[in-house]
Design goal:
The chain is an alpha+beta fold. It has 5 helices and 10 strands.
Length: 292
C-alpha cells in the first residue's frame, strides 16, 4: 500500500525558526535515520492523480537530443514518463510528512514497465506514491511508485528507489561498485562533459544540486557533480533499441558517474552496463519483455 500526497494540495506553511531567522523549506531538512516502519505516522494512504497531462513536444525533442534518442518518433522513449511525473514526485517527497530530505537524495535503482507504445500526443493520467522505507547500509532508502494511464488503461509503471545518506549502526557491507561477474563486451568509450547534469536538468526539471556544479555537489559529500541515474539509463537505451512495444527495463546504479568523466559502454543481448577506470561498475541494466 502506498502513502501519497496529492499534487494539487498546497504546501504546509513553514514553521518559524528560533531567533527570527527565515523559515527553512521542507526540502532542506537534514536526513534522519529511519526504519522500514518509518511511514507508520504518515497521513492515510491515497493516490494523487494529475489529469490531462500532455507532452510538450519541444521539451521532448530536447530531452531526446540530450539522451541520444532519435527525435520525431511517434512514441516517447520508455524513460520519458519518468520526466512527465517528476514534478509530482518532487511535490510528494518535499511534503513535510515525507521523512527524508529531497535535496541530496541519490537514485539507486529503477524498474520501468511499458505495456504498449506511448504516443507523444497522448493525454495521460499520472499518479505517484511512496510505497515504503527500507534500511540501507549507507542510510535509508525510499521506494517511489509511478503509474501512467491512457483513457483509464495502465500503459506504464515504475518503481524507483532513492537513498538518503546518513550514518547508520549497520556494519559496513561489501562494495557494490565492483562486478563479480564477467564484464560485458565493450562497445564504446564515452566522454561525459561537465555540464551534462545541467543540460539534463534543464529538460527533465531534476535540478538536484548533486548534479549541477562542483560547489553544490560538495555540499552533499560529492567531490564533483554526478550524472543523473535516469540520464545514464536513457543514454544506454538510446544505443540499445528495445524490440516491441511491451517491455520492462531494470537498472541499478552501483556507483556515481562523476562529471566530467569517461566510461565504457558495454552490452550483450538484452543486458548493458557502464564501467569506469579499473573496471569500476557504475550501472547495470537489462531489457525484458513485459510480464503478461
Amino acid at each position: 500500500m502506498c502513502w501519497a500526497r496529492t499534487f494539487f494540495a498546497p504546501s504546509a506553511p513553514a514553521r518559524p525558526v528560533p531567533g527570527g531567522s527565515a523559515p527553512r523549506p521542507p526540502f532542506a531538512r537534514r536526513a534522519r535515520p529511519q526504519t522500514p516502519d518509518g511511514l507508520k505516522d504518515l497521513p492515510a494512504p491515497g493516490v494523487p492523480v494529475q489529469k490531462r497531462v500532455r507532452v510538450d513536444l519541444a521539451r521532448l525533442a530536447a530531452y531526446e537530443r540530450v539522451c541520444g534518442f532519435a527525435t520525431g518518433a511517434v512514441a516517447m522513449p520508455v524513460t520519458y514518463p519518468h520526466v512527465l511525473a517528476f514534478p509530482m514526485t518532487v511535490r510528494v517527497m518535499a511534503s513535510r510528512a515525507f521523512p527524508l530530505p529531497v535535496l541530496g537524495l541519490v537514485h539507486t535503482s529503477t524498474e520501468m514497465t511499458q505495456r504498449r507504445g506511448l504516443p507523444a500526443d497522448g493525454e495521460y493520467e499520472i499518479s505517484v506514491c511512496v510505497e515504503g522505507l527500507a534500511a540501507h547500509r549507507r542510510g535509508t532508502e525510499a521506494t517511489v511508485v509511478t503509474e501512467a494511464r491512457l483513457a483509464g488503461t495502465l500503459v506504464w509503471e515504475s518503481r524507483n528507489t532513492y537513498l538518503a545518506r546518513h550514518a547508520t549502526a549497520a556494519a559496513p557491507g561489501p562494495r557494490d561498485d565492483v562486478a563479480e561477474r564477467t564484464p560485458l563486451p565493450a562497445v564504446a568509450e564515452w566522454r561525459f562533459a561537465g555540464d551534462v547534469g545541467r543540460r539534463y536538468g534543464a529538460v527533465s526539471r531534476d535540478r538536484n544540486p548533486i548534479h549541477l556544479y562542483p560547489l553544490t555537489a560538495r555540499l552533499f559529500g560529492f567531490a564533483r557533480p554526478i550524472a543523473h541515474g535516469m540520464w545514464t539509463v536513457a543514454r544506454c537505451l538510446a544505443e540499445l533499441p528495445a524490440d516491441g512495444e511491451s517491455l520492462t527495463v531494470r537498472a541499478e546504479f552501483k556507483a556515481p558517474v562523476r562529471l566530467p568523466g569517461t566510461v565504457t559502454y558495454a552490452a550483450e543481448g538484452n543486458r548493458f552496463e557502464l564501467r569506469g577506470a579499473m573496471q569500476r561498475l557504475h550501472l547495470t541494466g537489462e531489457v525484458q519483455p513485459a510480464p503478461m
